[in-house]
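[09:14] KT: can someone run the structure on this one? pasting the chain below
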Amino acid sequence: MSTYPLLLEPEELLPLLGDDNLLIVDQSKLETYLNAHIPGAVHLNFKDLQLGQKPTPGALPSLEQLSLVFSNLGLTLDKHVVVYDDEGGGWAGRLIWALDMIGHSRYSYLNGGIHAWLQAGLTTNRGEEAVVKSDYTVAELDLRYELNKAQILERIGQDDFAIWDARSAKEYSGEKVISARGGHIPGAVNYEWTLGMDTVRGLRINNLEEFDTLLNSLGLTKDKEIATHCQTHHRSGFTYLVGKILGRNMKAYAGSWAEWGNDETTPVTTGIQA
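[09:31] RB: done, structure tokens below
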């Protein structure tokens, strides 16, 4: 059984196209996918992996819905999934998290997604691809990859715990308010997700050695359990992914600020990052 690295470059994926054990999933906008996608890639609407209901719209849907979504993609236990999108890794990273949650650990992220692929001048297809559907059953979720509100409340302030807030600086400080309350979870550190992408190199992840040093400087170290969130666990899909690539113990807070900021009982801190 072939194994591939978690972070896959376009030039590494190219010779693998046509491998029957590979499932390439495109989470770009549908218009983008239909215009140009990696040969063989099947499209997934990001909404299919969201609960879409208050108070936690960013949580995963039911086991039945997850089973249907992954069956429609043609996922089987032996498939290695390569994920990408058209925004630098937010939706793709969230899909990596969803695969963790359903217990499917064979996956890779295409560094930079379709932007890096096109920048490299590699071949693309137009229109839709034929999908061989499967009968994939999600019987349970692996809760090791997420933390809920109650768990975060219990962990706040503990030395072996950190929170990576992937939202904008204005959302973090409370200047920009999307939920009932603005601000951030006490103790959370802010590094906006888009800052981690190289706009010159097709939205590839920034230099990994430098990124690792940056995370250490923010207190997001390998010896800590790190919860990451945004508003609905979309942007924090990228930070979850990067953390995994850099060897961090990442957990998603899928409720994110949509839940925390709308709950009048949760503690909130305002102001810019020190």
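[09:33] KT: thanks! The chain has a mean pLDDT of 97.
[09:34] RB: yep, looked fine to me
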